[in-house]
Specification:
Elements lengths: L2 E5 L2 E4 L4 E8 L8 E6 L6 E6 L7 E2 L7 E5 L6 E5 L8 E7 L7 H4 L7 E2 L3 E6 L1
Length: about 130
């Protein structure tokens, strides 16, 4: 059974940093699109960062560009999200997602409907 497991969330003060990891079991996703999404209470799930395949440049949401960095280890499962200069509005549950295929258009990378496998989420809380 394919599973994605996120780790690295926690409580941090404004301006602090966290590094999220996403490990996959059951199959590899090295050739597939992978992304991070987040969902705050009472809000819709939103795209944070992702890449269409293992060799593609990452795509970022405007709200995190310049503060967050998406990376993945070629031919391996882990996907990472380095989060710096965190703000209270970054507080949310962060989800790792994987598609069944590579995605080459940025607008599709940002769509949650493009992803078939999701992790259970990890809570990130930024205190003011």
């Amino acid at each position: 059974q394919v599973q994605l497991v996120e780790s690295g969330g926690g409580l941090v003060q404004t301006g602090g940093s966290l590094r999220l990891s996403c490990a996959a079991s059951g199959r590899t996703f090295s050739a597939n699109a992978m992304a991070w999404f987040r969902q705050a209470p009472g809000k819709e799930r939103e795209f944070v960062a992702g890449a269409g395949s293992s060799g593609s440049s990452p795509v970022y949401a405007d709200s995190v560009r310049g503060r967050f960095a998406f990376s993945r280890a070629p031919a391996k499962n882990p996907v990472f999200l380095q989060m710096n200069a965190l703000k209270p509005e970054d507080t949310a549950v962060y989800y790792c997602a994987a598609s069944n295929d590579a995605i080459y258009l940025s607008w599709r990378i940002m769509r949650p409907t493009q992803y078939n496998t999701w992790g259970q989420g990890t809570q990130v809380t930024v205190s003011s």
